[in-house]
TrEMBL record:
Keyword hit for Transmembrane helix: yes
Biological process terms in GO annotation: proteolysis; signal transduction
Keywords, ordered alphabetically: Hydrolase, Membrane, Protease, Serine protease, Transmembrane, Transmembrane helix
Transmembrane intervals: 6-26
Family that this chain belongs to: Belongs to the peptidase S41A family.
Any Pfam family matching the protein: PDZ_2
Residues of the PDZ domain: 80-172
Coiled-coil intervals: none
Entry's Gene Ontology molecular function annotations: endopeptidase activity; serine-type peptidase activity
Protein name (Swiss-Prot/TrEMBL): Carboxyl-terminal processing protease
GO cellular component, one term: outer membrane-bounded periplasmic space
UniProt organism field: Paenimyroides ummariense
Transmembrane among keywords: yes
Length: 524
């Protein structure tokens, strides 16, 4: 099995962002700053100079400094982080909501770069690249049979906006080789995956992170849904680890009435800033549901807390991550930066939802596994928060601080006969890569099918299940897949739709069996 190269910086920078942004909540206005020159700092500088001048071996002192900065920040809190110069541009692109490149999703298939699909409206799409195309050369450099890493491929394909990328491509569907010149440009990185109707009266918006463009994307989606006549909205913040606070506040503002509190922040000096809703909300008087889970953090929790404390809507899902610290991004002058915790935030009722971190980073990071062990992800009765952390919503309902937002309606993970494990398996690169290979064998035919026709074909033809089962067995998976066939088939169709169609088709399919969406349909 070749390594999957899918959705990386030329495509999206999601994996890096997930590590840095999970639990992230910060202001976007970075700035240089001045520091004192005291004895401790002089000692550190002198030590670095001595190592450079006198140490017996050559040492990369930049790496020592990076390590020192990371160790210092680790003594503060889990969310004060250092962003090295090598990481900074990629992280900034994720949060800016775009990057400069050619705009493709790709696999390395049999040691050849294969286009999964060009990003809609991106440079490759405009230049005529299609799903299934093989990129053989970039700037006369051979890409196939070279064992190139992701970084090497990215370095060959990236460049400045307006620059040209000359590619040699093989199109399997026509068995032809051709050259194509692609003008590199801004490729959008969507933070709002979809804004669709799940039934005649219910809209659904999925936000994957809070970037500079998030509110613009959200507003466009909400306005489109309102024109379609929705009278209730589901806002999906599951797996959303946070990001910039400004778009989260803007979105909460659209749900709340004038003068209702959105969030409070308190800094080191005890200065309190209270942010209240304007009187310009787009969606203040219709039913609202907010979906959260154990990986919904910071900015996601700001929205969920504001909605819950103001009794504006219903929070559905599982207890959120529990991150109540605000970071400010500060540049260090050499291309690197720190995100330093400069304040704590509180929900409108006054609760801090920051989970404890006094027992160290390892214990803090093991919180999710502890939730699994305690059974909390499968039973609401396993959630235990101190009575001393009780607060009241505007309507007098009891809510809790001290470790995330506890939903109003609890939805457990699927645990029947290991169905949760099957769901995770079907979303891995092992399955995604396999589906890409299968699509390649009949792409021309499959592309002519509607989503419904595709689903019918996969369900009715036993080869799809049997061949996937053989593939998974050959990959070392030994558990009984037959007992999970309905679940496997559902997510197999989902992966085909993900690769063949747009996000709307994928979400229209996947939401049919979403337990949280199903539960909402009963809350009338």
């Amino acid at each position: 099995m070749n390594k999957k190269n899918y959705l990386w910086p030329l495509i999206t920078m999601g994996s890096l962002a997930a590590g840095i942004v999970l639990g992230g909540f910060f202001t976007k206005n970075g700035a240089p700053f001045s520091v004192k020159d005291d004895k401790g700092r002089v000692k550190l500088n002198k030590l670095i100079d001595l190592i450079e001048q006198e140490y017996v071996d050559n040492v990369n002192t930049d790496s020592i400094i990076d390590m020192t900065v990371n160790n210092i920040l680790a003594q503060l809190d889990p969310h004060s982080i250092y962003i090295s110069k090598s990481e900074f541009d990629e992280v900034q692109n994720v949060m800016k909501g775009s990057f400069v490149g050619i705009g493709i999703n790709y696999h390395i298939m049999n040691d050849t770069l294969a286009v999964v699909k060009p990003l809609p409206g991106g440079p490759s799409d405009k230049a005529g690249l299609k799903a299934g195309d093989r990129i053989l050369y970039a700037e006369k450099v051979q890409l196939f049979n070279q064992g190139l890493s992701n970084d090497s491929i990215i370095n060959l394909l990236k460049g400045n906006a307006g620059s040209k990328a000359l590619l040699k491509v093989y199109r399997k569907s026509t068995n032809k080789f051709f050259d194509v010149e692609i003008t590199r440009g801004e490729v959008p990185l969507k933070s709002v995956d979809v804004a669709i109707k799940v039934n005649d009266h219910t809209g659904y918006i999925k936000i994957n992170r809070f970037a500079e463009t998030t509110y613009t994307e959200f507003k466009a989606g909400l306005e489109s849904l309102l024109k379609q006549g929705i009278d209730e909205l589901v806002l999906d913040l599951r797996e959303n680890g946070g990001g910039y606070m400004e778009p989260a506040i803007q979105i909460a503002d659209d749900f709340l009435k004038g003068n209702e509190v959105i969030v409070k922040t308190v800094n080191k000096k005890g200065n309190v800033k209270i942010t209240k809703a304007s009187n310009k909300g787009l969606f203040t008087d219709k039913k609202l549901y907010v979906l959260i889970n154990e990986n919904s953090a910071s900015a996601s929790e700001i929205i969920a807390g504001a909605v819950q404390d103001n009794d504006r809507g219903t929070i559905v899902g599982r207890r959120s991550y529990g991150k109540g610290l605000v970071q400010r991004e500060m540049y260090l002058g050499d291309g690197s930066a720190v995100r330093l915790t400069t304040a704590r935030y509180y929900t409108p009722s006054g609760r801090s939802i920051q989970k404890p971190y006094n027992d160290g980073l390892d214990e803090y990071n093991s919180d999710l596994s502890n939730r699994f062990k305690s059974g909390e992800l499968y039973s609401k009765d396993s959630i235990h928060l101190a009575d001393s952390l009780k607060f009241k919503t505007t309507a007098g309902r009891t809510v809790y601080g001290g470790g995330g937002i506890v939903p109003d309606v609890f939805i457990p993970l699927k645990n029947k006969h290991g169905e949760d494990a099957i769901q995770l398996l079907m979303k891995t690169s092992l399955v995604s890569y396999y589906v890409f290979e299968e699509i390649e064998s009949e792409r021309a035919y499959l592309q002519r099918l509607t989503p419904k026709q595709l689903a019918d074909k996969i369900y009715k033809d036993p080869k799809y299940f049997n061949e996937l089962k053989a593939h998974l067995k050959a990959s070392g998976l030994t558990f009984n897949l037959d007992r999970h066939k309905p679940n496997i088939m559902f997510y197999l169709v989902a992966e085909y739709m993900h690769q063949l169609y747009d996000d709307n088709a994928y979400y229209n399919w996947i939401l049919q069996q979403d337990p949280m969406i199903q539960k909402i349909s009963t809350l009338k």
